[in-house]
Design a protein that fits this description.
Shape: globular
Radius of gyration: 23 Å
InterPro entries: GATase_2_dom, Ntn_hydrolases_N, PRTase-like, PRTase_dom, PurF
Enzyme class: transferase
Strand content: 15-25%
EC number: 2.4.2.14
Structural class: alpha+beta
Number of helices: 15
Pathway: Purine metabolism; IMP biosynthesis via de novo pathway; N(1)-(5-phospho-D-ribosyl)glycinamide from 5-phospho-alpha-D-ribose 1-diphosphate: step 1/2
Strand order of the largest sheet: 3-2-4-1-10-9-11
Helix content: 25-40%
Distance between the termini: 19 Å
Number of strands: 23
Protein name: Amidophosphoribosyltransferase
Amino acid sequence: MGGFFGVASKTGCTLELFYGVDYHSHLGTRRGGMATCGERGFQRAIHNIENSPFRTKFERDVDEMEGNLGIGCISDYEPQPLLVQSHLGSFAIATVGKINNMDELLKYVYENGNTHFQEMSGGQVNATELVAALICKKETITEGIRYVQEIVDGSMTILLMTKEGLYAARDRYGRTPMVIGKKDGAHCVSFESFAYINLGYSDCKELGPAEIVFITPDEIKTLSEPGDEMRICSFLWVYYGYPTSSYEGVNVEEMRYNCGSMLAKRDSGTVDPDIIAGVPDSGIAHAIGYANESKIPYARPFIKYTPTWPRSFMPQNQDQRNLIARMKLIPVKALIQNKKLLLIDDSIVRGTQLRETTDFLYQSGAKEVHIRPACPPLMYGCKYLNFSRSKSELDLITRRIIKDREGDQVSQEILDEYADPSSRRYEQMLEVIRKEQNFTSLRYHRLDDLEESIGISPCKLCTYCFNGKE
């Protein structure tokens, strides 16, 4: 995933930029970057944040950088923002999204004037650099951004800074959010709507799908009107989004309460746990919603150790991720021993971490461990936002089980059955997961209930990872 923040101010903006980007640290773990523009021209700083948080790495840069315009980002992949010199002038650019037709687009730009790109580790081209090259194929920045929105298979949200102001462009189908805040003498643009509140900004405008605006300290000018179709990521509310954010007018925390409430309604009379608990952090609000609806007490039978493990994301290496997952959660034996627990996690991806959590609950004396994921079974790898580090769909516990049951060649019709909560195949898949993971019972959130929990039109939601429908 990734996050971004930008400022256009009549005065120096570096400190606001620093804090605004830092508020997006929950969206990525690998790279952080800031670029500013002022009397000394463009300045930039990029740091690796895998072993140290953004704020620690960039504190010195705040004192050294200056400017009244700035953009910054948190990224799980390529270093950015990039500084570019072209026939369109100098600009800085940061992006969030995923390009599925990278090879096709690279071939196009090589055949039309580009001679080379910087090569990142692993032999990959920086996707943001490719986007910049595509923008520069057109006569204006606005035309170039429109061109990128049209030809990228996947999604691409763009934040671009010139000496005159900021271009902000939401991806073609609005899969990721983009909001603008305002205060006297300044505007800001942000992925997360909460990131500017403590900086003195108030809500101004939420960009629509494919909308492009130009932002200065004095005004927001619409360069390209929003499109009619939207497919905003439903998983933003389930997991990625920070509790204080809202997307399309729907608050993340409130949605998670709704989600937990609907899980409880589906469970009514079928289980009798002593306490409800959420896996920290994203499962907690779902669990509160469940407890409020069911009238079963909410408790914290394990605590996340935050002084040295404060971040929600994990290293790239799977063995390290599993180790850190164990290290973070400390059981409270007094709240576990001889208790029947119902545990809500945001999702089950591979199943490794939740199985280990279940094991240590049993080792701490739990009588029963019922699991309620806050979203439907993940059936497909995300094509749009890089939200999963899985290299193959067989990394998903669902697809591995389907392969074991059905063989290597599985038709779309069979996959649709496994995604249908009313089908026999779906029930059989859940029972295999339950036994393999050693859960007392397992019930996933249904897709129709998830859509109702969010509360906007289902046709505006991307649910590809659950049902494969684009």
